[in-house]
Design brief:
The chain is an alpha+beta fold. 20% of the residues lie in helices and 28% in strands. It is built from seven helices and 20 strands. The strands form four sheets. An eight-stranded antiparallel β-sheet has the order 14-13-10-6-5-18-19-20, covered by helices on one side. A five-stranded parallel β-sheet has the order 2-1-3-4-8, with helices on one face. The protein has a five-stranded antiparallel β-sheet with strand order 7-9-15-16-17. α4 links the parallel β3 and β4. α1 crosses α2.
Length: 348
C-alpha cells in the first residue's frame, strides 16, 4: 500500500494539468466529490485551484446506497448526483467541473444536460497520485489525439483483427467520435486523467463479429490480466455468447448475468490508446485499491472495447466492462491506424 499524503511533486502536477485545462485566475470551477472519494485527490485539487486563483467551490455528495446485485467498479457512470435538480443547476453555472467522484461523471445520466450548458469536465480518475504523476497529460499529445479523432469521424467502418482470432466489424456512419489527450479547453469538452485515447460510440445495430481475448489482455472491471482465452460473439451490438473453459470466462459470464439486464451486454464504445506514458505491465506492480485502471484504457496501441452505457444509443446501466487488448490491428476504411499493437503514421 502506498501512502496517500500531500506531496509537493503531486501538487505541482495538479497545477500543471489544471492550467493545461484552461483553468486560471478567476475561472469558475466546481470540485465534484462524494463521501467515498479519495481524500488526497480532493485536497490536491483544492490546493492547486487555490494556487491558480480559480473561483472554486466543492460540491460534496453523499455516496449512494448500494443497489446493484454485484460490486460496481470502473464504470465512468457515477450515480452520486442522483438527479438532484439543485446540484445539476449549480453545475451548469460553472465553466469547469473537476470531477473526483469514485466512478467519474463521464457516463453519468446528468452529464449531457450539464454539457449542453457549456460546462466542461475534467475527471481525475480514482488512481493513487503516483499513477497520475507518471501519466501526466502532455500538450504535445493533443495534435495526435485530434488527428485520430478526425480519422474516426471521416471513416465509415472500423475492422479489428488479431492473430488470436478477433474479427470484428463496426459501422461508424453517424457514430459520435471523440477522445482526449487528458485536457480540454472547449465548452462541453470532456477530459480525463490518465488520458490519451480515441473513441467511437457506435449507434444501434452497428457492431458484429468475434472477439478473441488472449492471455495478457485485460479486464479492467476486475483489474486483472487474463490467464486464459475468451471468445466473444457480438451480434447487432450485443454480446450473445462468451466461450471459454477457464475462470476468466466464467467470471465474465457470471458478472454480466448478475445484472439481469440486456443493456449490460450492449456495446458502449470502441477505440484505441494513444498515451506513451501509460504502461500495460504496471498493474502487476500495484494493489487493486491503488488503481482505477484508467491507465490501461490509454496505453499506446491497444484496442479498447467496452460494454455498458452508451448515451448516444440511449442505453444506461451501471454494469460496465472496459477490455483493452494487445496485438490487434485496427483499420479505418482499409487504412491501418494500429498494426499488431503499434500506432501507425501520424499517430505514432
Amino acid at each position: 500500500m502506498l501512502r496517500e499524503r500531500i506531496e509537493g511533486k503531486w501538487l505541482d502536477a495538479f497545477r500543471r494539468v489544471l492550467r493545461l485545462n484552461g483553468i486560471g485566475d478567476g475561472t469558475p470551477v466546481a470540485i465534484v466529490a462524494e463521501t467515498q472519494s479519495r481524500p488526497v485527490l480532493m485536497d490536491l485539487s483544492a490546493l492547486a485551484l487555490h494556487d491558480l486563483g480559480a473561483a472554486f467551490s466543492t460540491v460534496l455528495l453523499q455516496t449512494p446506497p448500494q443497489t446493484a446485485p454485484v460490486p460496481v467498479k470502473s464504470t465512468g457512470a457515477s450515480n452520486a448526483i442522483r438527479g438532484l435538480r439543485h446540484v445539476v443547476e449549480s453545475l451548469k453555472r460553472v465553466e469547469v467541473l473537476v470531477d473526483v467522484t469514485v466512478e467519474g461523471l463521464i457516463h453519468a445520466e446528468e452529464w449531457p444536460e450539464i454539457e449542453a450548458a457549456g460546462a466542461r469536465l475534467l475527471t481525475i480518475c480514482n488512481e493513487h497520485p503516483e499513477i497520475l504523476e507518471r501519466t501526466e497529460p502532455q500538450a504535445d499529445l493533443g495534435p495526435k489525439v485530434q488527428r485520430g479523432i478526425e480519422m474516426l469521424q471521416a471513416a465509415s467502418a472500423m475492422h479489428v483483427t488479431s492473430q488470436a482470432g478477433t474479427d470484428l466489424r463496426i459501422d461508424l456512419r453517424d457514430a459520435p467520435c471523440g477522445g482526449t489527450p487528458g485536457f480540454s479547453t472547449k465548452p462541453g469538452g470532456v477530459a480525463h486523467w490518465p488520458g490519451g485515447l480515441c473513441l467511437a460510440f457506435p449507434g444501434e445495430n452497428c457492431v458484429n463479429g468475434t472477439i478473441v481475448m488472449a492471455p495478457g489482455d485485460m479486464n479492467l472491471t476486475f483489474k486483472e490480466y487474463l490467464r486464459e482465452p475468451i471468445r466473444v460473439t457480438v451480434e447487432n451490438d450485443y454480446v450473445t455468447a462468451i466461450e471459454g473453459d477457464g475462470l476468466d470466462a466464467e467470471l465474465f459470464r457470471s458478472y454480466l448475468g448478475a445484472w439481469d439486464d440486456p443493456v449490460a451486454y450492449g456495446f458502449s464504445h470502441v477505440g484505441w490508446g494513444m498515451n506513451p506514458r501509460a504502461r500495460w505491465e504496471s498493474m502487476a506492480l500495484y494493489d487493486k485499491r491503488d488503481v482505477q485502471a484508467t491507465e490501461f484504457r490509454a496505453w499506446a496501441g491497444n484496442f479498447l472495447w467496452s460494454t455498458g452505457s452508451n448515451q448516444y444509443a440511449g442505453r444506461f446501466t451501471l454494469g460496465h466492462f472496459d477490455l483493452p487488448m494487445r496485438g490487434c490491428t485496427i483499420t479505418l476504411d482499409n487504412t491501418p491506424v494500429v498494426v499488431r499493437g503499434r500506432l501507425q503514421g501520424d499517430l505514432a
